[in-house]
Amino acid sequence: MARLLCGIYCGDHSGEMDEYAKWMGVPPDLASVHAGEDNLEAFVALDFDLWSNEWMGPKCITLPLIWGGVTLADAAAGLCDAGWKEGVAKMIGQESLAGMNGHPKTDVVYCRIGQEQNAGWMKWATQNNGQEENFNIAFKRLVGIIRAADTENRYRIVWCPNIDQEPAERTYPGDDCVDIVSLDFYWQPEFGAPSDPLEAFDFMRSRSDGLDWQVAFAKAHGKGLSVAEWGVSQDNAGPYIKAALAFFVANNYLYANYWNSDADYKGKL
């Protein structure tokens, strides 16, 4: 059984990864990084080589499915193909992924596409708007472009709904274009989660599209498991974190990326 990889999101500022590693006493296994989504130029830039000089290890990349100014219908119709191809070429050629200038070349790169689509806050959201089919078609198109460019078969495609939103199955694009079923979940007592840490983790397991659902869905489709984002914001979270670790290990999760940032969610440890 492979060891669970412990990843981290530390924001977009130089020095954050070193600060975290010093605080923990050990570097993480993975760095979670996000490409830009404001417009085509931000997507194509793929500027997460900000950490080139401080992070030499593997990455989990989050790619937006679309960017500002286009719609899911546009993407499904092929209008984003040229932009995707340019951005994907830049991604695969990045020195920190391609093993250049002293960076070790990693065997596997995890690539999460269009995360949290079943909620309402992303540009590619499908919640209550009838865009599920366009999401699925667009997802397939982008995966096809990545796989055509990935001549070494290093990239693993990650599909990642959010816990307890619109039923995630509606936006599952198919077994042929997904390698890993992931999930984003955060402990938020202010939005109804229990304040007791062990009760809170049980709540995360049993919620709609929660952890128990994720495990069952991935196994039914023969896919790997991961957590792309998770976090705590309470000082009493020790038992919750231990329960999460035990659950991830017992169910053979590949990796779990902690949100060590106060951007959007106050999870910095």
Question: How would you describe this structure to a colleague?
Answer:
The structure is a single chain. The longest helix is centred in the middle third of the chain and has 18 residues, at 132-149. It is built from 9 helices and 9 strands. It is of the alpha/beta class and 269 residues long. It has an 8-stranded parallel barrel. Helix 4 packs across helix 6.
Main attributes of the structure:
alpha/beta, 9 strands, 8-stranded parallel beta barrel, 9 helices, 269 residues
Write the layout of secondary structure elements.
Blueprint: E1 5-9, H1 16-24, E2 30-34, H2 40-45, E3 59-63, H3 72-76, H4 81-93, H5 95-98, E4 109-113, H6 132-149, E5 155-159, E6 180-181, E7 184-186, H7 197-206, H8 211-221, E8 224-231, H9 238-250, E9 255-259
Helix pairs in contact: 4-6, 7-9
Give me the number of helical elements.
9
Shape: globular
Radius of gyration: 18 Å
Strand-pairing-aware structural class:
alpha/beta
- End-to-end Cα distance, whole Å, is 29 Å
Q: Poorly predicted ranges (pLDDT <50, ≥5 residues)?
A: none
Largest sheet: 8 strands, parallel, barrel
